[in-house]
Amino acid sequence: MYEVPQFDKNENENEESRKIFLFVELVDIGLREMFVRRKECTE
Q1: Integer CA distances (angstroms), 24 to 18, 27, 33, in order
Q2: I need a labelling partner for 19 at 20 to 30 A (CA). Which of 2, 11, 34, 42 fits?
Q3: Which of 20, 21, 15, 23 is nearest to 3 (CA)?
Q4: pLDDT tens figures, 12-34
C-alpha cells in the first residue's frame, strides 16, 4: 500500500496528492489485471 502524504498547507495541495494517489492506485490495479490476463493467455 502507498502512503498518502498529508499536507497542512492548504486543501488544494491535499486534493492534488489525493488525485495522484488515486491515479497511481488505478494504474497499479490495471497493470496487475494485464499481468494476470497475460499469464492466463500464455498457459
Answers
A1: 10, 5, 14
A2: 34
A3: 21
A4: 777 888 999 999 999 999 999 99
